[in-house]
Amino acid sequence: xxxxxxxxxxxxxxxxxxxxxxxxxxxxxxxxxxxxxxxxxxxxxxxxxxxxxxxxxxxxxxxxxxxxxxxxxxxxxxxxxxxxxxxxxxxxxxxxxxxxxxxxxxxxxxxxxxxxxxxxxxxxxxxxxxxxxxxxxxxxxxxxxxxxxxxxxxxxxxxxxxxxxxxxxxxxxxxxxxxxxxxxxxxxxxxxxxxxxxxxxxxxxxxxxxxxxxxxxxxxxxxxxxxxxxxxxxxxxxxxxxxxxxxxxxxxxxxxxxxxxxxxxxxxxxxxxxxxxxxxxxxxxxxxxxxxxxxxxxxxxxxxxxxxxxxxxxxxxxxxxxxxxxxxxxxxxxxxxxxxxxxxxxxxxxxxxxxxxxxxxxxxxxxxxxxxxxxxxxxxxxxxxxxxxxxxxx
Length: 394
Ligand SMILES: Cc1cc2nc3c(=O)[nH]c(=O)nc-3n(C[C@H](O)[C@H](O)[C@H](O)COP(=O)(O)OP(=O)(O)OC[C@H]3O[C@@H](n4cnc5c(N)ncnc54)[C@H](O)[C@@H]3O)c2cc1C
Prior knowledge:
By secondary structure, this protein is an alpha/beta fold. Helices cover 31% and strands 24% of the residues. It has helices at 14-25, 59-78, 96-111, 121-127, 149-162, 206-211, 243-250, 252-256, 261-264, 296-309, 355-372, and strands at 7-10, 30-33, 49-50, 89-93, 117-120, 137-141, 145-146, 166-168, 173-179, 182-188, 191-194, 197-200, 220-231, 239-242, 270-273, 278-282, 318-328, 335-338, 345-349.
């Protein structure tokens, strides 16, 4: 193994590989370390939605809109089939109370330029005939899209390699070397590498990497269980979420206090169909440490919720189930940028349920910050320092 590199990236998920792609595109020397295989973390155990309308208006939606723009030409740029499709998407509304909340959400999104509207039940059923008649309606945005997250990760890695990146699989970073407040290199299971910059792209494991350099990062693994059906004829149009999904995503405290097992597990509908025809039915949002087991209660509650909203799913066979760990942050925004007080140490992690959608823009921002010292928006709101002025452990 070569003993030096300008930049070391830790983590071979969609964020690490995207960052490797954009940095090598700008001529940087990069080595990426992944302790298992590419996409072996959340990036290979998730849904396929590039959904804009689930994002809070503000910097979150701004990032998603920039990413969506990049996605339009990404497949051609990477020269790899990533199964990108601009499908549109909807958020199902069950009650008048939810309708009021979604009206306000949609209005604020429209104000910043997102194409999104509220549909009544008849209009929603015209787009998605399988919807239950008890629904009040839905939102709809033609800007939502799909991508195969594993192919995307492999595509970023392949293109980064072509541009000179070295990607070291089955190589765990076990330590970070620093001197006088400056990063010096990393210690891996296959030897040391000296470098000027270390980028922590370890998703739900980012806090463990941070600990190696004396930092606390408030990311927690948030398990999501997903069910996969057999291949069926086209049945689901685009990305389908439920308003309860939005509540589960942004308000974990409401879920914990509920006595309903489905709400307690953070179950909110996410539904989409792959190009091959399998339907992905999700998902839970649970804080259970690094446990990636699937559970009987998870299966039961996901299905109960999904078939209540889309009864036609009842006739389909399930072929498997899996779970991944979303890298959750307390304010729902990722952590992107350099860390104050440790020169050369960057974080690009904490994308919770949005890492696939935000991967192109994240890689671009990190490469812009490293090469130009600035990017297309003010990213100070994404800095680690927003959580506490002094993150350094005593
Ligand atoms: C059920 C579920 C559904 C989701 N649906 C969507 C969706 O529809 N749309 C969307 O945009 N997002 C979705 N997400 C979120 C998305 O999957 C994540 O935000 C994204 O995959 C995070 O990517 P990452 O590269 O940061 O982390 P990961 O993919 O987890 O990658 C981190 C990598 O770091 C490696 N690593 C850790 N420690 C070390 C070490 N010491 N040395 C070397 N390597 C190390 C790990 O092995 C891992 O491969 C979903 C997530 C889940 C769980």
